[in-house]
C-alpha cells in the first residue's frame, strides 16, 4: 500500500475550503511522512489546513482533491533559551506554547497554528514593536509540491535558487507547498504591561512622547485609541503616567474589548488595509468600521457591500497603499477581486511556475488566480 492510501481518508461534509468540498484528507505526523504523501499525490490538487481559523480567507480553490491537515505535525522540537530561539512544528497551536520567561510575540486568533499564521502572514497589535511573522521567522522546513524537503535559515543555512524561503513562504497562502517546521526568534516576556486609553488622537503625540509603545491601536466605531506599554514595573508606571498626561487618558491593566478583534461579523466582508501613517485618519473617517494599528498603518475594516470594498480600496491605492478582501460571503467572492492590484504579479507567476509547475497547491487561492 502506498503513502497516499496509508495516510488518507475519505473527506466528510466538514472537509471543504470556501465551499469547495475535498475528496480526501490526510494528516501526516512528520516531515518524512508529509514528503512521501506529497510525492504520491503528484496528480492531485491540494490545500493545507491548520487550525482552520483562516481557512475561509482568500478565494476558494478552483478544485480540491486533498486537504493536508497539520494537526499531527504539532509540538516543540527545540527551545534554545540561551539563544532566544525555538523550533516548532507547523501544526502547533500558538495557544499551547510554554516558553517560560520568553515569548513568541505573535498575536493570533484562538486555535491558530504556527504554519497558518506564517502562511497567511497574519499579524496583530504588537507588530509595531516586535514585527510580524516574516520578521520573527529565521528558519523554515517545507515540502515542495514535488515532495522535495527543503530547509532554509536557522541552524541549517541552505537557500534554494537564491530565494529566502522563509520570506517566500510567509503570506503565500499555501500556494508553494507545505510548511512543516518553523524556527523563530524569541523575546523576553515583559514583567509588566498596561494600556493607556483615550479618545482617538494623532499618533504623532504618542511618538513625540518617546514612551516606546508596544502597540498603538485605534477603533473607528468607539473613536477610541489604546496604547500598550511593556517593560519593568517601574518603567511601565513612569511611561504610562507620562502618556496618560499627554493624551488625557486612563491607565488600565486590561485592553479595551475591541483590542485585536476583527471589525466584521462572521458572515461579513473583512478587509486588510495598508496605508502610510499620514492617511490613517482618512480611513478612520471613511464611515466604515475600521480598526487596527495606527502605528504601522495596517488596519482591518468591515465593508458593507461591494461598493464599500471599492471605495476603501480606492482610498488606499490613492494613498500609495493597498486593500485586500480577506473574507466574504460566497455571493461576494464570486464577483469581487479579493486581492486587488498587487505589484510584482509577473514575478509571483514565475516563482509559482518554478515551485509548483502543475499549479496543484491552493490553485486559484493566491494573487492573480495563482
Question: Do you know the CATH topology of the largest domain?
Answer: Uridine Diphospho-n-acetylenolpyruvylglucosamine Reductase, domain 3
CATH class of the largest domain: Alpha Beta
Please tell me the overall pLDDT: 91
Query: What is the count of helical runs?
Result: 12
Taken together, the total number of domains comes to 3
Name the shape in a single word. globular
How many β-strand runs? 21
The N- and C-terminal alpha carbons lie at a distance of 33 Å
Layout of strands and helices, then pairs:
Elements lengths: L2 H5 E3 L5 E2 L2 E2 L2 E3 L4 H10 L5 E4 L16 E4 L6 E5 L4 E5 L12 E2 L10 H7 L6 H4 L2 H4 E7 L5 E5 L11 H5 L8 E8 L1 E2 L3 E8 L3 H6 L6 E5 L4 E8 L1 H15 L2 E3 L16 E6 L5 H5 L4 E5 L4 E6 L2 H13 L3 E6 L2 H4 L11 H11 L15
Parallel strand pairs: 4-6, 5-6
Antiparallel strand pairs: 1-4, 2-3, 7-8, 8-12, 9-13, 10-11, 10-12, 14-16, 14-17, 15-16, 15-19, 18-20, 18-21, 19-20
Protein name: FAD-binding protein
Keywords: FAD, Flavoprotein
InterPro entries: FAD-bd_PCMH (IPR016166), FAD-bd_PCMH-like_sf (IPR036318), FAD-bd_PCMH_sub2 (IPR016169), FAD-linked_Oxase-like_C (IPR016164), Oxid_FAD_bind_N (IPR006094)
Amino acid at each position: 500500500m502506498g503513502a497516499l492510501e496509508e495516510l488518507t481518508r475519505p473527506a466528510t461534509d466538514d472537509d471543504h475550503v470556501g465551499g469547495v468540498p475535498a475528496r480526501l484528507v490526510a494528516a501526516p505526523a512528520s516531515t518524512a511522512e508529509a514528503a512521501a504523501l506529497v510525492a504520491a499525490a503528484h496528480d492531485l490538487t491540494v490545500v493545507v489546513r491548520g487550525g482552520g481559523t483562516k481557512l475561509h480567507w482568500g478565494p476558494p480553490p478552483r478544485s480540491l482533491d486533498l486537504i493536508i491537515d497539520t494537526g499531527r505535525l504539532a509540538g516543540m522540537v527545540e527551545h534554545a533559551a540561551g539563544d532566544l530561539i525555538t523550533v516548532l512544528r507547523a501544526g502547533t497551536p500558538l495557544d499551547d506554547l510554554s516558553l517560560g520567561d520568553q515569548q513568541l510575540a505573535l498575536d493570533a486568533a484562538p486555535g491558530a497554528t504556527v504554519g497558518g499564521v506564517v502562511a497567511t502572514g497574519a499579524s496583530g497589535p504588537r507588530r509595531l514593536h516586535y514585527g510580524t511573522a516574516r520578521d520573527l521567522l529565521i528558519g523554515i522546513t517545507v515540502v515542495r509540491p514535488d515532495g522535495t524537503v527543503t530547509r532554509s535559515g536557522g541552524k541549517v543555512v541552505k537557500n534554494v535558487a537564491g530565494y529566502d524561503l522563509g520570506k517566500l513562504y510567509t503570506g503565500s497562502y499555501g500556494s508553494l507547498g507545505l510548511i512543516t517546521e518553523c524556527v523563530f526568534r524569541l523575546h523576553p516576556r515583559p514583567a509588566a504591561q498596561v494600556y493607556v486609553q483615550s479618545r482617538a488622537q494623532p499618533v504623532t503625540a504618542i511618538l513625540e512622547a518617546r514612551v516606546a509603545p508596544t502597540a498603538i491601536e485605534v477603533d473607528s466605531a468607539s473613536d477610541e485609541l489604546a496604547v500598550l506599554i511593556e517593560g519593568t514595573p517601574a518603567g511601565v508606571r513612569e511611561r504610562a503616567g507620562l502618556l496618560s498626561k499627554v493624551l488625557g487618558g486612563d491607565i488600565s491593566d486590561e485592553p479595551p474589548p475591541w483590542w485585536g478583534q476583527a471589525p466584521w461579523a462572521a458572515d461579513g466582508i473583512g478587509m486588510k488595509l495598508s496605508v502610510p501613517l499620514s492617511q490613517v485618519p482618512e480611513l478612520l473617517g471613511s464611515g466604515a468600521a475600521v480598526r487596527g494599528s495606527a502605528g504601522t498603518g495596517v488596519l482591518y475594516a468591515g465593508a458593507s457591500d461591494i461598493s464599500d470594498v471599492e471605495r476603501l480600496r480606492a482610498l488606499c491605492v490613492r494613498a500609495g497603499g493597498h486593500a485586500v478582501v480577506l473574507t466574504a460571503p460566497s455571493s461576494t467572492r464570486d464577483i469581487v477581486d479579493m486581492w486587488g492590484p498587487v505589484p510584482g504579479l509577473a514575478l509571483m507567476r514565475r516563482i509559482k511556475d518554478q515551485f509548483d509547475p502543475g499549479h496543484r497547491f491552493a490553485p486559484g487561492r493566491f494573487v492573480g488566480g495563482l
